[in-house]
Write a structure and sequence with these properties.
The complex is a heterodimer of chains A (428) and B (184). By secondary structure, chain A is an all-alpha fold. In chain A, 82% of the residues lie in helices and 0% in strands. Chain A has three domains: 44 residues; 160 residues, no CATH class; 154 residues. Chain A starts with a helix and ends with a helix. The C terminus of chain A is likely disordered. Chain B has a domain of 100 residues: Orthogonal Bundle (Rna Polymerase Sigma Factor, Chain: A). Chain B has 184 residues and is mainly alpha-helical. Classes of the chains: A mainly alpha (428), B mainly alpha (184).
Chain lengths: 428, 184
Amino acid sequence: MTEKDLIKQLKSLRALGANSDWKKTNRSLLISQIKGQSTAAPASAVQKTWYGFKAFMPSSIKTFVYKPVGAITLIIALMFGASIVSVSASKGSVPGDVLYKVKLTREKIHAGITVDDGKKTDLYIGFADERLNEIDKLKDNPKKPEHQKENMKVAVSELKNQMGNVKNQLEKVKSKPRSAKEIVEVAKKVDEKVEDISNKIEQKKQELSGVTGEDEVIDDLDDAQDAAEEASDVAIDVIIEKHVSGEVETSIDELANKIEKKIKKAEDRIDEVNEDVDQLNIEKEEIIEEPIEEKIEEVTEELEEEVVDEPAVATEDTVIEGEEVVQEEGSEDTIEDVIQKPDEARKLVDEAKELLEQGDITNAFEKVKESNVITKEVEEQIETIGVRENTEEQDIIPDNIEEETTESTETQSSESGETEEVINESVQ
Amino acid sequence: MNNKTLKIKYLLYQAKNQKDPEAFGKLYDIYIDQIFRFVRFKVATDEEAQDITSDVFLKTWHYMQKSEKKIENFNALIYRVARNCIVDYYRQKTKDSVVSSSEQFEEIVKDRTNLIDELDTKIDLEQIESKLKLLKEEYREVIILRYIEDLNISEIAEILNKTKSNIRVLIHRALKTLKDIFHD
């Protein structure tokens, strides 16, 4: 027998273990014994964080952190006479703080080492809640107003990630061989908590609306809310699936209540989208009513005004304007398409209501989800059209100015009357 | 740091600093089989091994709560406690109970055979285990810790309170002796 064979055989002894019944009984006994003896006061939050840091970080990182932290602490202590203990741990940090990354890493490690999928889902929900707290802190007490927006965006983006994690985790719970009861319990908890988070996001959106420069944050909050609703949809799907299959019975009232809430949200969303669509409709009518000649005249006038100060227009502008007109015709089709969609979404919601009345929970919920998909498409298209129009509006004048500048050396000496002719020729 | 090590560190932190019995329960889940096995190789019966193993976990918890020192290596700590518990056990027992007589040795092999049958393994565990019992205590201990419990040299050195070089030499000699036993 070679040494290798011998070691292989020795390793085979690892298969020996204790009797499972004894392990269970002994575990319960051990836990009850130590619970009975454990009377010491728990460590404080600062101690816990510090011990946690010491326990997890490799010595190289500890040294890397100790040195600057020690130096900074000393400086602060010397400057303000503050005690070393007052150096706050990462737990209360917000985006923009030095320790914020440590906080996120700590959370990732915590989630990484949590084996139980249900508990992991709870953790992700807890982290999402923490992100909401951070948004509040940033909003109420901006430490660095100049970075306020980007810090808020970091917190919102992390919030969205956590909602994605909750959804993925729930999918995992669903696919693992667990008892249907356990799966439904997790799903119900997710639905309840995520609904709470979604409501909080809505509240934040309202608080921020009207605040200058916070539009991007609100858009990101919209995305986070979508992610929360997706997680909630998966949870409700699970609850319905297990109810329909007869594995775990949930009361019809409870299910109907959940779907009614979803219907209400879908309707509110359609209403919001309709407001945007009405605005688009007005713009579209203006485009149709306004003859192309008038449009050209309007643009010409705009150009004239611009050219008074910087008298230069190249013939290329004609081409650019031609493209503008063609693009607007294209936009018209898209707008037409977008305008009709909310009606489709509304129709689906109405169907969902009817199905719910008939007691067909599964299909009612499917209709609500289909309706939400259409509403989301409209929201995205409106956003695209909005972005394009803004870009086009910005493009018309600055581009001309740029071209004027390039041509200005040739025409700077021209009289204003000559310039007018050039404009008319080029536009015609 | 792999996932298991990280998990153990986290649980250790929870159990020691937050005095969390559930975290210690999870450490129990991770270590119970290997500690039981380690003890079982040194005593005559499953029942004895069970009693000692229970004691090992309880003593480890007490140590963790009382000690001010930072626990760098839980592996090393728990095996050391296990080793001490076994020593205490034999101190209290009469000489007749020590696993040395051929009669009791046969009993162990018989007892273990039942366990092996349950495990449905193709390898002849009984044979390797019986040969292992023929090694002297010092050799058997390092072989168990190194190849069955998969501990590294540093951990074994810490448990047995020897230098790493000593452990390397011991493992080398133990393996050679075991090989000779197989060839006989």
